[in-house]
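Quick one: co-fold with nicotinamide-adenine-dinucleotide.
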Amino acid sequence: MKEPLILDGRKVSEEIRSKIKEKIDSYKERGLRDPGLAVILVGEDPASKIYVNNKVKACAKVGIKSFKFELPQNTTTQELLDLISDLNTDPEVDGILVQLPLPPQIDQQEIINAINPSKDVDGFHPQNMGKLVARTEDGFIPCTPLGIDLLLQHYSINLKGKDVVIVGEGFIVGRPLTLLMLWRGATVTVCHIHTRDLKRFTLQAEILISATGVPHLIKEDMVKEGAVVIDVGISKKDGKIVGDVDFEKVKYKAKAITPVPGGVGPMTVTGLLLNTLKSYERRERL
Ligand code: NAD
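Sure, here it is.
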């Protein structure tokens, strides 16, 4: 059986991150300040802690200074708004990231709306989401869609005129990704929990992207021969990290496929680093 091309998010990330580091090093040599990212974690969710630590480590490696704020589980919306208000005007902070999900007592949309859109490196502020609709380059594209776009570009997978099927229309991935894929000229079908007969749609995909968090939702018989398969999902099954795609079986049908872990995950963090650098360069007029 033919082995597919593995879309290696770790390797591609390394390449992009070393270019980011080179740029930041050159700015530092010119005596400029360090780029800065504020990362806010509320509560004790173990997965969120891992994600935040990964982001902080990745920042350090490329020369971005991170400011980590760990707030207790019972933090109120007002307390978080006060912190964001300080960070919005802090000249050392180029990006503000609030790790989602937030505890239930906090109004998530109110928090996102309070972030200065020019520091919203996650790209979730309505102004940045709107720029994705308007297709203006000066906004921030949410990190996972941005990372997927860069991964496809790296492997010269052209999107123009392609049939792209996205499974999942979540706020963080599916919805902004739909807009980005349309921007790139793809014909996009979006499926979700209420879609009847998912397979009817997935079988049409030249590029199939799944972002549901349902382990192994995408089976071999749901994938067209020769498709490119991008797996965004991260969940646990039998103590192992798995994606939305039944990788071991689907890989023989796919022309190219992302692994989990090591595919979209590292590219998401790379997207965050790029957005932070973009914000820094804009603030420093570089
Ligand atoms: P979400 O809960 O906001 O959205 C999930 C989407 O999946 C919804 O649109 C829902 O309708 C759809 N869905 C659920 N069950 C389905 C089913 N049986 N059939 C079809 N559609 C179904 O989640 P999210 O924040 O978009 O995250 C999705 C997954 O992606 C999670 O596993 C998350 O951990 C992962 N994720 C990974 C990265 C990364 O860097 N790799 C980044 C963000 C999110």
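If it helps, The chain is about 40% helix and 15% strand.
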